[in-house]
Amino acid sequence: MADLTSDIRAELIATAHALADAAREATLLHFRKPGLLADSKETARFDPVTVADRLAEQRMRAILAQRRPDDAVLGEEYGAAAGTSGLTWVLDPIDGTRGYLSGTPTWGVLISVADASGPLYGLIDQPFIRERFEGGFGLARTVGPSGASALECRAARPLDQAIMLSTFPEVGTAAEHLAFRRVADRVRLVRYGMDCYGYALLAAGQVDLVIEAGLQAYDVQAPIAVIEAAGGVVTDWQGGACHDGGQVLAAANAAIHAEALALLNG
User: Quick one: the chain helix, strand, coil %, rounded to 5?
Assistant: First the structure.
């Protein structure tokens, strides 16, 4: 982990909030507005991108160019830009563009700062609800319509009492889907379509597991920082690091993580 002074940490936190404020404004310009259109980034399936995705990332990158010009940037819409500081900002301007297009409030803005070891600090921001989840550098808190509160993941409970979230019922490849079903068939409740808001709910102590596959670094780095700050565990399906994306098992505590990991590899 990078050896950062308290002043640098404070500047990184302030910069992250400035990015989130800018992205919140940009995304709300178009959310639930008539005539919003989407292009697809793929031909085999619908992988949407909107003017709001692009505008939000452009505004965040402009802030970083001014405030943190030596840091690298990795964003979903405009790719990677090299830096010299050893720190990288990882940006997803709208995680859950399908939800954004549908008018649901489960999409969010993901912002994190990482070094070579992985994410150090992250924000999950839901602009429409005006709810922001923050984790890292000794912080684990949320601010929203009900005020501010600490983030803390749920205590251990039996798997058959657990609530699990995911975005797509298909969950990756056929083999990954079968592994996912081994866990899904054991828990009390499974809900789909949550996008990044599912990870925020895990950090807030509302659910026990989020299991997904086929993710990118910009999908997971902010959630990792927030959940780990709240006391949770986030790994791939083999128990290793997942900050580059791929398979993700996010758990409220070590006990339920171990149960789910065993079933995924059953």
Answer: 35, 30, 35
Q: Please give the Cα distance from 41 to 45 (Å, whole number).
A: 9
pLDDT (0 to 100) of residue 3: 83
d(CA 50, CA 98): 10
| pTM higher than the cut 0.70 | yes
Q: What is the 3-state secondary structure (H, E, C) of the chain?
A: CCCCCHHHHHHHHHHHHHHHHHHHHHHHCCCCCCCCCCEECCCCCCCEECHHHHHHHHHHHHHHHHHCCCCEEEECCCEEECCCCCCEEEEEEEECHHHHHHCCCCCEEEEEEEECCEEEEEEEEECCCCEEEEEECCEEEEEECCEEEECCCCCCCCHHHCEEECCCCCCCCHHHHHHHHHHHCCCCEEECCCCCHHHHHHHCCCCCEEEEEEEEHHHHHHHHHHHHHCCCEEECCCCCCCCCEEEEEEECCHHHHHHHHHHHCC
Give the model confidence (pLDDT) of 59-118 as tens digits: 999 999 999 999 999 999 999 999 999 999 999 999 999 999 999 999 999 999 999 999
For residue 4, give the H/E element and its range. none
